[in-house]
Predict the structure.
Amino acid sequence: MNCALPDTLLSPFSEFIAQRLGLHFPPDRWRDLERGIRSAAPDLGFGDVEDCLKWALSCQPTAGQIEILASHLTIGETYFYRDMRVFEVLESDVLPRLISARRGAERRLKIWSAGSSTGEEAYSIAMLLHRLLPDLQSWQITILATDINPNFLKKAAEGVYGDWSFRSTPAWVKERYFRKREDGAFEIAAHIKKMVRFSYLNLAEDSYPSLLNDTSAVDIIFCRNVLIYFTQELKDTISRKLHRSLVEGGWLVVSPSETSHILFSQFSAVSFPGAFFYTKDGAVSNAAQASFVSLPPETDSPRLSFPAADTMFPDRDIPAAVLNKRTEEREMTGYEQSLAYYQAGRFSQAGETLAKYLDSRPADAEAIILMAKTCANQGKLSEALEWCRKSIALDKLNPVFHYLLATILQERGEYKEAGVSLRRVLYLDQNFVLAHFGLGNLMRLQGKHREAKKYFENVLAILQGYGREDELPEADGMTAGRLVEIIHSTFMQEKTA
């Protein structure tokens, strides 16, 4: 029988796990932590668990070793259509409202399953949309499923499940969307599988919202049974970042045990019979108006991570009083005022100020590109595209402008055109690292894994010229070391056939 590990080792290890993975193991969960490290030790090459702990605390584990730890410390406890009432509300109220609003405009929906485990939640969302949208092929649907555990992601991408994943699941789900295999397992239908994209993402460490990981301008975020594992400080940070990742009128779905008016104070709370949702400002259904709970507003809004035109102000809220004070100290130009509003997430005001500024300076390329980003962050992708093309007409050799055009085209689901723009970026600047990364992602989305690997290898070669902590140009603060980890942990392990 194994002796219990001493608290003198478990205490610093719990702090290490909180810092690197964002997972919270207080003293009353140290036995869970011990079970996790005991199961991880052999995979990390250690026969003795104490030696494994001392090694982890005295060195800097690689991304792959951190993934091994994550796979033993996280729990993938889920099943299809878990919390059925949540899916009933989505089907009867939330999704029909979003679909109706988009049907006459750009037909696109983006849903993010954060902490997706082995994929049952994300596939349940895909099946629901398949039922609700008879004209599904005419829509740009993005279902992103992310997790910190690469083993879970691999299983999810395979789409093969046993009976335990169907407990409490309606019988029609298995009958309509799965094929029983000879080994008794059930494989999800190919047309549902291709609706979901699985990707590694660490909610505690990675940047979001960002176009680099497709976490910007999201309509619905599922983050259920995830925040309970984090420290309170990290919960607050994640809540704010999820808020920024949503479009105006977007929805956040958490588990009943995670609801908190304090933690989600920047959201508006909506109570449905048997379910509880959060919304970013409007979009409250008539049926839910009576139970609408008004919470303190926040000026922060989702910001697509396009190349920054300036770094004049940090990316945070700028109260009107501060803006006015700066105006008194030195008369700000219309462009500077617009940039301040944009950096504060006040896109409507940024657009209004820019429109007046551009009336007198219609050939200001910087102002035009800022208008493109402002429109995109309000979901006005067609207008953003027009402004972006105007900026390119003024400066055809600027690779940053072409990269912005590619990001907008990709957001619209126009992957072929996005690829053309990214290749034009590389023609203008062959070392534009995010263009290589973007092309790798596009190839991956189209199932061209061999071509994708080539572009990711180009990224790794270029990054050899950077220090690990160097921030990459136009990358929303992402460091070279982090991009290397993302490529190794997700993309380079995929098939190259």
Remarks:
- The first helix runs from residue 7 to 21.
- The two ends are 47 Å apart (CA to CA).
- The chain has a mean pLDDT of 84.
